[in-house]
Design goal:
hydrolase, elongated, HotDog_dom_sf, five-stranded antiparallel beta sheet, 5 strands, fatty acyl-CoA hydrolase activity, YbgC/YbaW
């Protein structure tokens, strides 16, 4: 991932994240990536509650993940998140879980759609988000 415009979120791998072998259970990578996207929005002043007030919510439309090397118990890692593409009602994020040596353990391309949470129909991404996320 190119260094420009990358949001970085630190995580520690806890016992609850791992399987019996001490490796991160595959579904937990999704949780790490979800938290990092939420924190990216929070870093630009957008809370989930504010989204709901504006009748907007982000839902996963598509995920493509590549597990390259298992993360292990007690590792301190960084989730790197970059906005790849912004459209009227969707955003594509590129994310990676990186260790201290700079090796990517898992990477994902995540497409989120903006929907009205009451109707679950697509809606335009609120302007206050568009102006911040498109920078």
């Amino acid at each position: 991932m190119a260094e420009e415009n990358i949001f970085k979120w630190p995580i520690t791998i806890y016992y609850e994240d791992t399987d019996v072998g001490g490796l991160v259970y595959h579904a937990n990578y999704l949780k790490f990536f979800e938290r990092a996207r939420t924190e990216l929005l929070r870093s630009i002043g957008v809370s989930q509650q504010e989204l709901f007030k504006n009748k907007a919510s982000f839902v996963i439309r598509h995920i493509d993940m590549d597990y390259l090397k298992g993360a292990r118990l007690d590792e301190q890692l960084i989730v790197q998140t970059r906005v790849e593409t912004v459209k009227k009602a969707s955003i594509i994020f590129c994310q990676g879980l990186v260790n201290n040596a700079g090796h990517t353990l898992c990477k994902a391309t995540v497409k989120v759609a903006c929907v009205n949470p009451e109707t679950m129909k697509p809606t335009a991404i609120p302007q206050f988000i568009m102006s911040e996320i498109s920078k």
